[in-house]
Amino acid sequence: MAAQEDKLKDIIGHAKEYGFVFPSSEIYDGLSATYDYGQLGAELKNNIKNYWWKSMVQMNENIVGLDAAIFMAPDTWKASGHVDAFNDPLIDNKDSKKRYRADVLIEEHIEKIRAKIDKDVTKGKKKFGDDFNESEFRATNPNVLRREGEIKGIEDRMRNALNNEDLADLKSLIEDLGIACPLSGSKNWTDVKQFNLMFSTELGSVSGESAKIYLRPETAQGIFVNFLNVQKSGRMKIPFGIAQIGKAFRNEIVARQFIFRMREFEQMEMQFFVRPGEEMKWYEYWKEYRIKWHKALGFDDTAYRFHDHIKLAHYANAAADIEFNFPMGFKELEGIHSRTDFDLKQHEEHSGKKLRYFDPEINDSYIPYVVETSIGLDRMFLAVLSQSYKEETLDDGSTRKVMSIPPALAPYKVAVLPLMKKEGMPELAREIIDGLKIDFNCQYDEKDNIGKRYRRQDAIGTPFAVTVDHESLTDRTVTIRDRDTMKQERVSIADLHAIIEKKVSLRNLLS
Ligand code: ATP
């Protein structure tokens, strides 16, 4: 664990040093759980958005985009249930005065038991060597079975307590499990209380209950209230989807772990409207589609896992998370939810407007069911940083920091470096950039020796470095260096565009 926490620290330091992510308003000592994306972060973020938008909207004939306002009529949030039910169960430790989400404390306890199971398995592997059959061991070993039973018992009790809003039992469960505050080590807990996560503000200059409006806690509702607008104006036929990227706000209590959990963050959501009864088929379809989107990036396959929800939200009949192995361990990166007709039905009731679809194929009208995919852009950003960031020891014993960001997502695609600041090399370098910059984000760098410049590009994840030298001036060839292999090749300037395109194109991820 310590090594992993160190890794998160290294990533945070690196992200700041090179201009990916800064603490917000840092000159005033920052604002907790709020971050700014710097010059490289803004590029990487845009590239992730673009990858998502292409894959979800432009590659699917029956999905269209939307850009709804952050402010919405307050009744929206009554209808969606957020005014009454968007609560986290919180518990304070009386000694450290720290506040925790009760369910998160319990989940973390369960993770510890899982870690013990993994230890048993590792021991088994050592003992039995090549003869070891892991699945058989997991299914029969008494220690493993006992721990699995323990986990199931805890999960069942937590699910019941959450579903019945039995806050007293949630507290008893924490006490029975002997969970201590990670900070103070004490088991001196307050009662569990519910806390609403929405930020509110006032509209115009009039204050008072009637003018209270909320900052949206999810982008989804902007899609639901526009369901018929889009369907009619776009002549959409079910099944179809509406996708949106935008900011969301939650007054998170336990906001920590860098950009993983923030109070202002960005979501990329898609709501897919289907015929009632067909939602499970589409739920499976989108689970499959989304995990493929992630795996196309070429990161370690074992960094992803599905996790079915223990407690279904009030609107869902099936829900799973795609969890990612962040430096803090496996955590939710994306949710895929079958939301039934809950939202549209609620909006019908609260607005008094019909939100039905007439289905010509079955000659009937109905409120569609919805399958949603919802991913946090900032969490995706952290996933990319944490899989890409490496400190390598090279053959000659020296070390380098390299960000092996998938080339299609890299902030800069190519750096063009004149070997010397004279004899026309800078001019030729700039001429090369002029030929490339419409299609690729390029960087020019003439400071320091060439080795240092390569290292700088490695550290920000630029897939290619092109060096202009004496030879270039006479025969219009340059060297092109690959970030990952560090191999250099001499190529003609005329071929650069095609070489770069082949490696950095989104086609590599989308096809
Ligand atoms: P968690 O259990 O981690 O609080 P959630 O289940 O509340 O997340 P959803 O409501 O399903 O999250 O939101 C969809 C996605 O939005 C999440 O998968 C996550 O990537 C992102 N997200 C949610 N809350 C935050 C936050 N505070 N900061 C950054 N991203 C967030």
**CATH topology description of the largest domain:** BirA Bifunctional Protein, domain 2
Number of separate domains: 3
Q: Mind telling me which CATH architecture of the largest domain this is? A: 2-Layer Sandwich
Roughly how much helix do the residues carry, as a percent range?
Answer: 40-55%
What structural class do you assign from the helix and strand content? Answer: alpha+beta
| Strand residue content | 15-25%
List the ligand species.
adenosine-5'-triphosphate
Mean pLDDT: 93
CATH top-level class of the largest domain? Alpha Beta
Describe the biggest sheet? 7 strands, mixed
Uncertain stretches: none
Structure explained in plain terms:
- The chain is α+β, with helices and mostly antiparallel strands.
- The protein has three domains: 1-72 and 216-393, Bira Bifunctional Protein, Domain 2 (BirA Bifunctional Protein, domain 2, 2-Layer Sandwich), CATH 3.30.930; 92-186, no CATH class; 394-510, Rossmann fold, CATH 3.40.50.
- It has a seven-stranded mixed β-sheet with strand order 3-9-10-16-13-12-11.
- Helix 2 (39-58) crosses helix 13 (377-388), helix 5 packs parallel to helix 8 (167-176) and helix 7 packs antiparallel against helix 8.
- The mean pLDDT is 93.
- It binds adenosine-5'-triphosphate.
- Residues 218, 250, 252, 261-262, 265, 267, 332-335, 374-376, 378-379 line the site of adenosine-5'-triphosphate.
